[in-house]
Write a structure and sequence with these properties.
Blueprint (H helix, E strand, L loop, with lengths): L1 H11 L9 E6 L10 E6 L5 E5 L2 E5 L4 E4 L10 E6 L5 E5 L3 E5 L6 E5 L1 E2 L2 E2 L5 E6 L5 E5 L4 E5 L2 E5 L10 E8 L2 E6 L2 E6 L8 E4 L9 E6 L5 E5 L3 E5 L5 E4 L10 E7 L3 E6 L4 E5 L9 E5 L10 E6 L5 E5 L4 E6 L17 E7 L2 E6 L2 E6 L5 E4 L1 E2 L2 E2 L3 E6 L5 E5 L3 E6 L4 E5 L10 E6 L5 E5 L4 E5 L4 E5 L11 E6 L5 E5 L4 E4 L4 E4 L1
Keywords: Phosphoprotein, Signal
Protein name: Hybrid sensor histidine kinase/response regulator
GO molecular function, one term: phosphorelay sensor kinase activity
Length: 511
């Protein structure tokens, strides 16, 4: 019974077949978050999640928040970027060119001011932080180029040093000796093996008309993913091939603002106010990408997303503008549905299944679903009979399936032959008023009617036994449910006479 109720809820509440189902939970100021504009998110080595917000920093343990502001030692409250370094320390970027390093065990805070030639860089807008394979901390800014922190000293790289643009949106470690920087004018390459990086070159991506890069990331296979202003998502494969995914392929729009790569070969994308997309690369083909969307009209608290972060447990965290944080966790519940909203095919009256094989009784037909392949089939007619209100689905010991349609009759699916047939009932009954089914321990089919009593069918002899209130005063002519207790008793629920027990010999009424 628990299985039946569980799947009824799944099917009834959703309208489109979805491969990835999420539970979304929002955390905001009322839950303890320091402030609701969340610019960046990281996870420390102990598993705690840290949020960089306009009002300070929050650490989350899954239940409670610990908050850090100037009162606890931060140089500024407004925090725009976060990084976990190779030693497990947390770095945060703040307004006015300031940084803080937090020991996650002791909460000790060390503050830094970005400065060049002893001049504080108070006007820089820090967008991201990055650590290269030598241990340098790179400070990525929008409009002021790149800075890096090495041996307790800050250095600066700008267009004068060969950077394609001072507007930088991301840095990756392309190989052991080279960094790639995504800028508003394309990709700059930096030799990071120099004692002090100064050699900057540019990378030509000929396919780009306007190489304004918003994002750059390298996956575990060596592919480089990047988004380009109003041109969608690109992938430069490890073999040098360039692939492109745009709105025509299923994206919500071509302006992709942030990207997060998951180890399970999925990519998460955010847009300007539109929401979130998930690309399932494992189940995509070069000609057709499997893309799902999550929007503020549906699951999300807001479509205004600053940052996407995927933790080690594969939960997806969204830093929102003014709405706190959304956590997307893969749901334990799998949602299936058979048609568009308000269709009769979404009204599910009955369910039965075993393993990956499930049958659903719908308002206007029978649905069959294979959970392993997600293949589904809807049967709306059997012979000349139009199916309506499939009130019950029941398997027998031979592997056949029985269906009762309130309005059309009783039907059988022969699993071996793969064919449906109709069960014709005696003239003293009307199959249109058949309402429920049951099987006794001898394999006989019990059929409960509205107004026509009880019919017992023996599939071995093809004979019927008809029982009514007139023949047995303990019976009702309107039976709503039949249950075999498998202890020698069969229980009947009725529309007008309460509960009836059959002990193998006689009927007994409880009302």
């Amino acid at each position: 019974m628990k299985k039946i109720i569980f799947f009824f809820l799944l099917v009834f509440n959703y309208f489109n077949l979805s491969a990835y189902n999420v539970d979304v939970r929002n955390y905001n100021v009322q839950h303890g978050l320091i402030q609701s504009q969340v610019f960046d998110i990281v996870q420390d080595n102990e598993g705690f999640i840290w949020f960089a917000t306009v009002g300070g920093i929050s650490r989350f343990d899954g239940h409670d928040f610990i908050n850090f502001t100037r009162r606890q030692g931060l140089p500024e409250n407004c925090t725009t970027a976060a990084l976990v370094d190779r030693q497990g320390n947390l770095w945060f970027a703040h307004q006015k060119g300031k940084l803080s390093k937090i020991n996650p065990q002791t909460f000790e805070i060390e503050a830094f001011q970005v400065q060049i030639d002893d001049k504080p860089q108070n006007n820089i807008q820090i967008y991201k932080l990055f650590q290269d394979n030598t241990g340098r901390i790179w400070i990525i800014t929008v409009g002021q180029g790149l800075y890096f922190f090495q041996n307790s000293r800050f250095y600066k790289l700008t267009r004068d040093d060969g950077l394609l643009s001072s507007y930088v949106y991301g840095v990756i470690q392309y190989n052991d000796s080279t960094l790639w920087a995504a800028t508003a004018r394309g990709v700059s390459t930096i030799d990071c093996q120099d004692s002090i990086p100064q050699k900057i070159d540019s990378l030509s991506v000929l396919i780009l008309k306007n190489p304004y890069l918003f994002y750059l990331e390298k996956d575990a296979s060596g592919n480089v993913w990047f988004s380009v202003l109003d041109q969608g998502l690109y992938c430069l494969t490890a073999q040098g091939e360039v692939k492109k995914i745009t709105k025509k392929d299923g994206l919500l729009e071509n302006d992709v603002w942030d990207i997060a790569l998951s180890p399970d070969q999925t990519i998460w994308l955010s847009y300007n106010l539109k929401g979130l997309s998930r690309i399932d690369l494992k189940n995509s083909t070069p000609k057709k990408y499997k893309i799902e969307h999550f929007t503020p009209e549906g699951e999300l608290t807001s479509g205004d997303i600053f940052r996407i972060f995927i933790d080690r447990e594969k939960n997806v965290w969204l830093g929102l503008n003014g709405k706190g944080v959304d956590q997307l966790r893969e749901s334990l519940m799998q949602h299936y549905h058979f048609a568009q909203k308000d269709s009769p095919e979404n009204i599910v009256w009955s369910i039965w299944g075993k393993g990956n094989d499930f049958w659903f009784g719908l308002e206007n037909g029978i649905a069959h679903l294979n959970l392993k392949t997600s293949e589904k089939q809807i049967i709306k007619r059997i012979g000349k009979k139009k199916l309506i209100s499939i009130m019950q689905v029941l398997p027998d010991k031979q592997g056949n399936w029985w269906f009762v349609s309130y309005g059309s009759g009783i039907f059988k699916y022969d699993s071996k032959r793969g064919k449906f047939s109709e069960l014709k009932t005696p003239k003293e009954t009307d199959e249109r008023f058949a309402f429920c089914l049951g099987l006794d321990d001898q394999g006989k089919l019990w059929i409960g009617f509205e107004d026509y009593g009880l019919l017992i069918f023996n599939p071995n002899t093809n004979k019927f036994k008809h029982l009514t209130h007139k023949k047995n005063k303990a019976l009702s002519d309107s039976i709503s449910v039949i249950c075999n207790a498998h202890d020698g008793n069969i229980w009947l629920g009725t529309f007008d006479a309460g509960l009836i027990q059959y002990d193998g010999k006689e009927f007994k009424k409880y009302s």
